[in-house]
Amino acid sequence: MDKVKKYEQIILHLLNDYAGIRKSLTPNVISQVLVDRENQHYQLLSIGWHNGKFVYTMAFHFSIQNDKVWIQQNNTDAMIADELVERGVLRSDIVLGFVPEKVRGETGFAVA
Fold first, then answer.
1. d(CA 80, CA 100)
2. How far apart are CA 15 and CA 102, in angstroms?
3. What letter would DSSP give residue 37?
4. What residues have CB less than 8 Å from 86, skipping those under 6 apart?
5. What is the pLDDT, as a whole number, of residue 72?
6. Ramachandran area for residue 17 (φ above 0: left; ψ -120 to 50: alpha; else beta)
7. What's the CA gap between 34 and 56, in Å, rounded?
8. Is residue 55 within 8 Å of 26, Cβ to Cβ?
9. Which among 59, 65, 69, 95 counts the fewest CB atoms within 10 Å?
10. Distance CA 64, CA 37 (A)
């Protein structure tokens, strides 16, 4: 299996695992995994109603660019890059896209 397919599978399993977590405090808010395979973008959204307010939140946004997994957004307290490593993504193939390029070298992950 080539690296991109492997990384896509890892991302999809991770997102589906997080989507399966039920939030007892917000039972009317559901998780949705959005996948754009053509452009290699993967997101986890929370969407629904809570206390009379509409909730629409992106938890994670990943993309695969140049054989690397880019974490474009992480709106959780999860150490998602470390979870990707535990699941088989090479640390040198993870880019923290939300971190300014000039300081990415200090993260222990790929710069680009």
1. 18
2. 29
3. T
4. none
5. 98
6. alpha
7. 13
8. yes
9. 65
10. 10
Radius of gyration over alpha carbons of the chain, in Å? Answer: 15
State pLDDT tens for residues 95-111. 999 999 999 999 999 99
Dihedral sign, CA of 37, 17, 14, 63?
positive
* pLDDT in the model for residue 33: 98
Tokens of 67: 């054989």
Do 89 and 69 form a contact (C-beta atoms < 8 A)? Answer: yes
Domain 3-104 adopts which CATH fold?
Answer: TATA-Binding Protein (3.30.310)
H or E element at residue 73 = strand 68-74
Alpha-helical segments (H) within the chain: 3-19, 80-87, 101-104
Taken as a whole, the chain contains a residue count of 112
Rounded CA separation 67/92 (Å)? 11
CA nearest neighbour of 33 among 14, 55, 10, 50: 14
> DSSP class of residue 105?
T
The yes-or-no verdict on residue 65 having pLDDT over 90 is: yes
